[in-house]
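hey so i finally got around to running the thing on that chain from the lab meeting. sorry it took forever, my laptop kept dying and i had to restart like 3 times. anyway pasting the input first so we r on the same page abt which one it is
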Amino acid sequence: MLCGPKGCEEPHNTRCSVCGHRAELFELPGRPEKCCVTCSADVATSLLLTTEIDEAALAGQHAEHLIAE
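ok and heres what got predicted. didnt touch it at all, straight out
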């Protein structure tokens, strides 16, 4: 058990589904896995880019700048 300025807490006993580190985990809407804050930001960015690339392709627009990201 860890003790700090906010009192005692149980240690994190779950692991990030992306990097495997023990940390506080977050859920992204529509995703079953839980990720640490760093990985959840990366996953959210990837999901957004994928959506934007798909929408550009459906609209017949060039998406090379998005793919480069």
